[in-house]
Design goal:
The structure is a single chain. With 443 residues, the protein is an alpha+beta fold. The chain has 2 domains: 3-225, PmbA/TldD fold (2-Layer Sandwich), CATH 3.30.2290.10; 229-443, no CATH class. It contains 9 helices and 17 strands. The strands form 3 sheets. It has a 6-stranded antiparallel beta sheet. Strands 7-12-13-14-17 form a 5-stranded mixed β-barrel. A hairpin with a 2-residue loop joins strand 1 (28-44) and strand 2. Helix 1 (3-23) packs across helix 2 (79-95) and helix 3 packs parallel to helix 4 (212-225). It is globular. It starts with a helix and ends with a strand.
Length: 443
């Protein structure tokens, strides 16, 4: 893929759709256009199992007329295909109800400069090279321990694409990006105990991925550690979320402070702006401009310039995640979060996961969460789990078939440590989290 040529072509398509919509009577219009290419290779038991090639493109046109909104999509970028999509959007708008909050973001908020955030790194991998990497990963996992009984396989995924957005304020912007990953899943056996676990690495640039052998060994080690798990009696104890699972805790926070949840009154943090929702040591920042960051973006899905800001400062909630629509519903201004948050950074106040464990006389370390038992309106939290029991600062044995239960508002307030072992594989960057008291319900 030639990123410059593709970006320019998509910009012409998006701009032509917006221009046509205005000519055909729209008061305002916007268009999003995308082009994606990718390769995914999976091996299992030392043999190539599957090869998938992806090549997708799409156009979404939204028009506003008399405060009525219509959206249509297409994969046909020809002049006729674009015109059909625009006319369909206008037809749909004629049937929708008026909405005083509908419309584009304000023109003065559009991104003026689009910095190079180093988001595009083609891997250059062909099927043979990707297969060789996957085989190295799985081989390392299978050789790690004789208790590795079977394999679900190892996969290498590599993809790149371009997103372009244009609207009738005259904004046209787009940039290429890439994402690459290596993953492995294996099964360990000991007597009648059979456990599966996995590991993965992900980054914008292939060179930033962990070695495939490391990924395989980590997947195997995680599976072996879970063998011969015990059950425990119900207790209220400290609970430790390793970094890869702690991301989910802060994901619940982001869901609760989205503008949609606020104006629909469907959040356990309703009208919580300015309230203390975490202990005083907790700072959470949004930084869209981290080079190679998985959540980096110079503008949001409405062309609004993104910006660095504090979401939580000294435990106090300082900002919501607002699009222009949700902002208008709340009588506020968009925060440049149409489409989601950008690199949410939870600042640490403690050491690594091992150091956090060493500081606990008794605790439960979550290894896996099961089910969807979280109520976003009340904050009630109840998740099936497996993991490890800590005694006297050391992991004593694996545990399964328990339930971790609490309420997110109380859980946030009960955080006593955020680790320095920050996971960089997603848009939320956090280390391990220690919550002082949670119910771990067992047999």
């Amino acid at each position: 893929m030639d990123p410059t040529a593709v970006t320019e072509s998509l910009q012409r398509t998006a701009a032509s759709a917006v221009e046509l919509a205005k000519r055909l009577g729209a008061d305002q219009a916007e268009a999003s256009v995308s082009h994606d290419e990718g390769l995914s290779v999976t091996v299992r038991i030392g043999e190539l199992e599957s090869v998938e090639r992806q090549r997708d493109r799409g156009l979404a046109v939204t028009v506003y007329k008399n405060r009525r909104k219509g959206t249509a999509s297409s994969s046909d970028f020809s002049p006729r295909g674009v015109e059909d999509a625009v006319r369909k959007a206008l037809t749909i708008a004629s049937f929708t109800a008026e909405d005083e909050y509908a419309g584009l973001a304000d023109p003065e908020l559009m991104a003026r400069d689009v910095p190079n955030l180093e988001l595009h790194f083609p891997s250059g991998l062909d099927v043979d090279a990707a297969t060789e990497i996957a085989l190295r990963c799985e081989s390392a996992a299978r050789a790690f321990d004789p208790r590795i009984e079977n394999s679900d396989g190892a996969s290498v995924g590599t993809g790149e694409g371009v997103r372009v957005y244009a609207n009738s304020h005259g904004f046209v912007g787009g940039y290429p990006s890439s994402s690459h990953s290596v993953s492995c899943s294996v099964i360990a056996k000991s007597g009648s105990s059979l456990e599966r676990d996995y590991w993965y690495t992900a980054a914008r640039a292939f060179e930033d991925l962990d070695d495939p052998e490391h990924v395989g060994r980590e997947a195997a080690a995680r599976a072996v550690r879970r063998l011969d798990a015990r059950q425990v009696k119900t207790k209220i104890v400290p609970v430790i979320y390793p970094a890869e699972l702690a991301r989910g805790l802060f994901g619940h926070l982001l869901g609760a402070i989205r503008g949609t949840a606020q104006y629909r009154k469907s959040t356990f943090l309703l009208d919580a702006l300015g309230e203390t929702v975490f202990p005083e040591f907790v700072d959470i920042e949004e930084d869209p401009f981290i080079p190679r960051g998985m959540g980096s973006a110079p503008f949001d899905a409405e062309g609004v310039a993104t910006r660095r800001r504090m979401l939580v400062e000294r435990g106090v909630l300082r900002g919501y995640l607002l699009s222009s629509y949700s902002a208008r519903r709340l009588g506020m201004q968009t925060t440049g979060n149409a489409g989601g948050a950008h690199n949410v950074i939870v600042k640490p106040n403690a050491g690594t996961l091992a150091e956090i464990i060493a500081g606990c006389n008794e605790a439960f370390v979550v290894g896996e969460l099961l089910g969807q038992g979280v109520n976003p309106v009340t904050g009630d939290y109840s998740r099936g789990a497996a993991g490890f029991w800590v005694e006297h600062g050391e992991i004593a044995y694996p545990v399964n078939e328990v339930t971790v239960a609490g309420n997110l508002k109380e859980m946030f307030q009960s955080i006593v440590a955020i680790g320095s072992d920050v996971d960089l594989r997603g848009a939320v960057r956090t280390g391990s989290v220690l919550i002082d008291r949670l119910t771990v319900a067992g047999g």
